[in-house]
Design a protein that fits this description.
The protein has 355 residues and is an alpha/beta fold. Helices cover 34% and strands 17% of the residues. A 6-stranded mixed beta sheet has the order 7-6-8-9-10-11, sandwiched between helices. The protein has a 3-stranded parallel beta sheet with strand order 1-2-3. A two-stranded antiparallel sheet has the order 4-5. Strand 12, helix 12 and strand 13 form a beta-alpha-beta unit. The radius of gyration is 22 Å and the shape is globular.
């Protein structure tokens, strides 16, 4: 996928990266909506890709031809199949290829679909100019200096990896790519490759902070980590700092070409208590009463009043929940909590009576 971030635009085409967790029904719907002409499918997802094409073939409302299927092997080799193979395609390609530059800086470079946090995925068109500007802005804002080593835990299908698929190349960096990751893998790769930068949703930070001691390794260098998607709890901030990470909280949307806003860190904040530093970087929802939805760990018990009292001890009182609901948390295909479902549940609970 990293190669295709460069190859597809250089061929004069538009890149459309799909979530690897989508099922065949969703893939076929997005292929139809995007009017895709070529579908690259990694061998581990070949069955999903074939099922999606079968869905398209049986769709009487689709007037477009089926996209050409090109397979990509797990190990970078070739797949013996009836389909076109990625490595063979590259090997047989003519060497005298001329880059097809965009005719206009506003021509599209990518079509990205949102993760569907509040509804079905929406298609967002990125222009060459917009992607270029935000790539530079992301590198500057998060102190991505020359020759960084970047660990990929942010999927490249998520707003082009927050523009860093292009940004790391721009800075002459090294990419450490993972198929799947755990806290142990993250610590191992940081230690092995001397990772300087990485990104991740708050769930990734939570996984790192709560990693068993046996899975942890000392950081060989200071690691800058970008996080977004939801506000991080204060204990996660302090836990990451204790491990040696520098956390950058960013805000953005797929619709804003990824990262768009950052709360710039002020030097005078360095000496403040952890809770106060966290408060200064968090967005604060005004006029609403917090309601906590809690999923307890296995073999752990807690009561509503214990949760509320704990939060009041650790947080500013306006941030402490007034109600607690113990339940499984609904997730999107990218692992983000579906907050709109939780809001609906909270709204159905009605207003709290002030006592």
């Amino acid at each position: 996928m990293y190669e295709l971030h460069f190859a597809v635009p250089m061929a004069g085409a538009i890149l459309c990266t799909l979530n690897t967790r989508h099922d065949a029904a969703m893939v076929s719907a997005l292929l139809k909506h995007s009017a895709a002409k070529v579908l690259f499918v990694e061998s581990g997802l070949l069955e999903v890709g074939r099922a999606a094409l079968n869905n398209l073939a049986g769709d009487q409302t689709s007037a477009t031809a089926l996209p050409v299927l090109i397979t990509i092997a797990h190990d970078g080799g070739c797949i013996n199949s009836a389909y076109n193979d990625y490595e063979s395609l590259i090997t047989e390609a003519p060497l005298g290829f001329d880059i097809r530059w965009p005719l206009n800086e506003l021509d599209p470079i990518a079509l990205n679909y949102t993760s569907g946090t509040t509804a079905r995925p929406k298609g967002v068109i990125y222009s060459n100019w917009g992607a270029y500007l935000n790539t530079i802005a992301t590198a500057l804002t998060y102190n991505i200096t020359v020759t960084p080593t970047y660990l990929w835990t942010v999927p490249m299908f998520h707003a082009n990896g927050w523009n860093l698929s292009w940004g790391i190349a721009m800075q002459g960096g090294t990419n450490v790519c993972l198929r799947h990751f755990t806290a142990k893998v993250v610590f191992d790769k940081i230690s092995q490759h001397k990772v300087t930068h990485m990104g991740g949703a708050p769930t990734v930070l939570n996984m790192i902070v709560n990693a068993p001691s046996g899975d942890r390794k000392p950081l060989p260098v200071m690691v800058h980590i970008m996080t977004g998607g939801a506000a991080r709890p204060p204990n996660i901030l302090s836990g990451m700092e204790e491990l040696g990470f520098i956390v950058h909280q960013m805000y953005g949307l797929t619709e804003t070409t990824g990262p768009a806003t950052i709360n710039t860190w002020m030097p005078e904040w360095d000496t403040l208590p952890t809770e106060e530093r966290s408060r200064l970087t968090l967005p604060t929802d005004w006029g609403e009463t917090p309601c906590a939805f809690v999923k307890l760990k296995t073999n752990v018990d807690a009561t509503e009043i214990e949760i509320i009292n704990y939060c009041r001890d650790k947080l500013p009182h306006y941030m402490a929940p007034k109600a607690v609901v113990f339940a499984d948390l609904p997730k999107t295909s990218t692992g983000k909590t579906q907050k709109f479902i939780l809001r609906q549940k909270a709204r159905a609970m009605g207003s709290l009576v002030k006592t």
